[in-house]
Specification:
Blueprint: E1 7-11, H1 15-26, E2 30-34, H2 38-45, H3 56-62, E3 67-70, H4 73-77, E4 82-85, H5 100-108, E5 117-120, H6 128-138, E6 145-148, H7 158-163, E7 168-172, H8 175-184, E8 192-195, H9 197-228, H10 232-240, H11 261-274, H12 280-304, E9 311-315, H13 330-340, E10 344-348, E11 366-367, H14 371-375, E12 380-383, H15 395-401, E13 406-409, H16 416-422, E14 425-428, H17 437-440
Parallel strand pairs: 1-2, 1-4, 2-3, 4-5, 5-6, 7-8, 9-10, 9-12, 10-11, 12-13, 13-14
Antiparallel strand pairs: 6-7
């Protein structure tokens, strides 16, 4: 690392907090991560990571001399120069962000006048920083700086995203705080965008909303492709070659999920509505995304002339590969809708947490240790998550074990021609349904 090693307290040991703490330790800083969940801290202190994120466990082990974990606020704050707020901000019933955990951290540092700065990485509504600044002042912490430093890490590649960012965004009301926070990232070869606090808060919400919009747009084009006979694979590839557009997030599928896109899109919509502006475009993005897995169920229902008594296999449960995260996963909507239609649901996923099987609707499904077992005796299958293991499945053998070899490839992962040759009826997203010769005859 180049630059000065600093003492950092990170509040929150979830995906963002743990990655932030481990990566700052990797950059040479001394870091204490504080969380309120005893079991999570126990696991971390015993050398285990409470969730799956590629490379994170190795990073924590490599930096164990500079990285510690605690439940105690004073242990975290007493020797710290800066506090990073990395707690979750889940949606409330109204769609607004629940900031109770953010305020709990601000209250916890009310006596920490020795701090250089409090920095919020949590995704918060625009205007939160002004309220936090006022709260710090009311507590006599007028000399403690404040900054918004949103994160732009994607689950499954969060460590790499932190250490090789496209940009570091820092919003602060004074140059001294902005310069001090920017110095924490001095070892990274990336541009630092300095701005006011409100703009930094908006950057995160706008970025996620735009990415969600691109996903939704290509899914809408895919629906038109299904109706007209065009192939979304050809369309999205050619569109993405346009240098003005690029190929990113132009892959049709079952819709976005996870902890960020759904929550942040709704939070931005709620924030706009609270300001008296109906964000119509974002309304459409959210509605289309919620409809996407339901459309898949309707397509299967039409193909099978009903789903009552049918057995359907879901291949993949997590919202995307390389993570064990089930939050807002399309698979949950698929399972619930299939069960509501009277189908029996089997499922497979290499990383879905075992506790998921005890939650609705998963408690009414049957999990299997491998894809072939989930496919046995099924009337149809939906490929939900593009796990690479699914490209290695013996699909001719799978077709022989199924009652009806019908596959809806919800991620367009597999080769339609190979599936046809294996005896499958193939349904893709944005592609016409294709049936093997034996079925056509």
């Amino acid at each position: 690392m180049t630059g000065t090693s600093r003492r950092i307290a990170v509040f929150g040991a979830g995906y963002i907090g743990l990655v932030t703490g481990a990566c700052f330790a990797e950059l040479g800083h001394r870091v204490v991560v504080r969380d309120i969940q005893p079991e999570r801290i126990r696991l971390l202190n015993s050398g285990d990571v409470p969730f799956f994120e590629p490379g994170l466990g190795d990073l924590i082990a490599r930096n164990k001399e500079r990285l510690s974990f605690t439940l105690d606020v004073q242990e975290a704050v007493s020797d710290a120069e800066v506090v990073f707020v990395c707690v979750d901000t889940p949606p409330t019933a109204s769609g607004d962000a629940d900031l109770s955990r953010v305020w709990a951290v601000i209250d916890a540092v009310r006596d920490a006048a020795h701090l250089v700065a409090v920095v919020v990485k949590s995704t918060v509504p625009v205007g939160t920083g002004a309220r936090v600044r006022a709260a710090l002042d009311e507590r006599g912490l007028t000399d403690v700086g404040y900054a918004s430093n949103p994160e732009f890490t994607a689950e499954g590649r969060a460590v790499d995203d932190f250490l090789h960012p496209d940009r570091v965004v820092i919003g602060a009301s004074d140059d001294t705080t902005a310069t001090w926070v920017a110095a924490l990232y001095s070892a990274l070869d990336s541009p630092v965008e300095r701005m006011d606090v409100a703009s930094a808060e908006m950057v995160k919400l706008a970025s996620n909303a735009l990415l969600a919009t691109r996903i939704t747009f290509i899914n809408e084009i895919a629906t038109v492709c299904e109706a007209t006979g065009a192939d979304i694979g050809h369309v999205s590839r050619a569109v993405g070659l346009d240098h003005r557009l690029g190929p990113h997030f132009l892959k049709a599928g079952l819709g976005y999920g996870g902890s960020c896109f759904p929550k942040d899109s709704r939070a931005l919509r709620a924030m706009a509505s609270n300001s008296g502006y109906p964000f119509q475009l974002l309304n459409a993005v959210i509605q289309v995304n919620e409809l996407q897995p339901r459309r898949a169920v309707q397509r299967l229902k039409a193909e099978l002339n009903g789903l009552k008594g049918r057995r359907v296999a879901l291949l993949g449960m997590t919202f995307k590969p390389a993570t064990d995260d089930m939050r807002e996963a399309p698979s949950t909507t698929l399972a619930a809708r299939l069960l509501a239609e009277g189908a029996t649901v089997t499922c497979w996923d290499p990383m879905a947490p075992h506790t998921t099987a005890q939650q609705d609707p998963w408690s009414a499904t049957t999990r299997h240790p491998d894809p072939l077992a989930a496919l046995a005796d099924a009337d149809a299958a939906i490929l939900v998550t593009e796990w690479p293991e699914l490209t290695d499945v013996d699909w001719p053998a799978a077709a022989r074990t199924m009652r009806t070899p019908l596959l809806l490839d919800g991620r367009n992962l597999l080769d339609p021609a190979a599936l046809l040759a294996a005896g499958f009826t193939h349904m893709g997203v944005g592609r016409a349904t294709r049936r093997p010769a034996s079925v056509r005859e």
